[in-house]
Structure prediction request, 384 residues.
Amino acid sequence: MHLKSSVFRYWLVRRHHRKERMMRTVIVGAGLVGLTTAASLRLLGHEVTVLEHAPRVRAVGAGIGLWPNALREFDTLGIGDEVRRLGEPTDAWFYDAAGNPKRAAGYDASAYRFLMVPRPELTTLLADTTGRDRIRLGAHVTGYTEYDGRVEVHLGGERLRADLLIGADGVYSDVRAAMVPGSAAVEHEGNYAWRAVVPSGGERPEGTMVTIGGERTRGGYTRVAKGQTMWWVAQFDSGELSGSKRDRALRRARHVAESGWHDELLELIAATPEEAVLENQIMLVPELPRWTTGRVALIGDAAHGLSPHLAAGGTLGIEDAGVLRAELASGSADALARYESVRRARFEKVREHSTAIEYAVGAAESAERYAAFSDWMLTTAPAT
Prediction:
């Protein structure tokens, strides 16, 4: 860790003068947001334990887009340069199904620029930054009990005592289930996505990141690292699924390919081994009555999982981690409530933008609504 971090120095000074013991924090979920939160809270001197249900730390997904607001948090963690070396800068365009490029007028070019990073490599870096010895694998959280001075995390017959519990365990969160019974994730009916990372070939290096096709489809491809290309296809109102995963992806991809446009996308999908194709029914987290209690907080998709068509879910979850750290560093007795208040207000706007983009008609309107979202996200991002 970079001991020169101003946040870290602040916490050390407070501990020295007030002789505070180290805060014991349990984080459930060793995904992108959970590991970022763990590394972030270590900057405050927290004694962190990460609990992961799976038998190993692994990335779910192919590639992820990171916007400048996420990269700033990684800079704070001292790993920003390493993250940038992992990925490929993307200067995205929207295309219609015939290959005509579209962009909305009146927005700075930054509204279209982000970094594509392969999830496995990013997850490995974050696990190493957190410290592998702080991650417990095969740990199934069944609930928790909260007391005035502590919280006990239930792990089967074991009780793990902590000062703070963070649920970063995604849309199927066990921590959320315990905090808000009846809050199980629901299907975004008919909304499916297919994707894979494959060796790069002769496809255009600038990619075709977002192509809007008929039958409410969208898709494209982009470089995620040197020698690696990610293709993806998604469809709202997909209807009945039949055939193999690759066949299903190809069928939708033809809606974003006309008159020879996007032959590379079709070729990438056709050449992908069936077992390498990821197919996901998109799940949504219902709006919750609360994200926090006295010593427990939800973060990332566990609190606000949305459809991935925004291509910013990871970035917004990383923002959560920075805001949580800043509130805890303030020493306020209501730090968790302040975190929730700030982030809930932000996600009210995110949901509005998400709905607007989902129901955009055609590439031009999609480009306009997406630029409105990304410009808003970047210009209002927290300066943590």
